[in-house]
Amino acid sequence: MIEEDKISCILKGIREVLVSEIPRFPKDCCFEASLLVGKVFSELKYDVKIHDGYYKCENHYWNEINGMLFDITIDQFEVEEDWSKPQNGNRYHGREITLENEINRWKRGCYKWIQLLDTKKLITELCIKVMSSL
What we know:
Blueprint: H1 3-21, H2 30-43, E1 48-55, E2 58-65, E3 68-70, E4 92-97, H3 99-108, H4 112-115, H5 119-133
Antiparallel strand pairs: 1-2, 1-4, 2-3
Helix pairs in contact: 1-5, 2-3, 2-5
């Protein structure tokens, strides 16, 4: 399994959890989703970054994982792109933000739905899923 496929498999598992926990997902969930993706991939020792900026003139958040741009909430813009595949960076304009700072801000905020998720358990389940795909 190539690296891109492993990342996509993990993202699919994260998205399954988010879809089951948040009725409106992916609409207006890009900040929280990008933090969860950042946290999971960081704990799995990937090079992960969170970006804050604009997609099609709308405020948006997305991730860069091992140098590839991924956006698991891209379908909120009703576009044809496959959210589980690397995206074309030409449509994204923004800056990198620090995962630790954003998670601390998020913990102080009203993002309770994501706090309920057991990240360690989620990571274990995602790793099992990826390994079984090999």
